[in-house]
Design goal:
By secondary structure, this protein is mainly alpha-helical. It has one domain.
Length: 101
């Protein structure tokens, strides 16, 4: 299997979904077993996302802004990385040049 930007993008969305379930389980009383499972999924998912991002950076599939959004900020809020994928995809589709950060 070849690593692609699309694969990293969907892995980021899956990580965000696991985190969303974790947040719901944390907020709703009585869901502690689910909270434990998705807490573990979020933690291991974050490690996996870091490894994927490093590999994708080496292959030049991602830029550094997206990599930081997914790996660094993704530890506390995976939605940031997923949102950055969406933002960059929309920007590419419209053909607008990238704004300086």
């Amino acid at each position: 299997m070849r690593l692609t930007r699309r694969f990293v993008k969907y892995a980021s969305f899956a990580h965000s979904a696991a985190y969303l379930v974790l947040l719901v389980a944390w907020l709703v009383p009585g869901l502690h077993p689910i909270e434990a499972v998705f807490g573990l999924a979020h933690g291991l998912g974050w490690f996996a996302m870091c490894a994927l991002v490093i590999a994708a950076l080496k292959l030049r599939l991602l830029d550094i802004r997206l990599a930081v959004a997914v790996a660094v900020l993704g530890a506390v809020g995976p939605f940031i990385g997923s949102a950055e994928f969406v933002r960059q995809d929309r920007q590419r589709a419209t053909g607008r040049p990238r704004a300086a950060v």
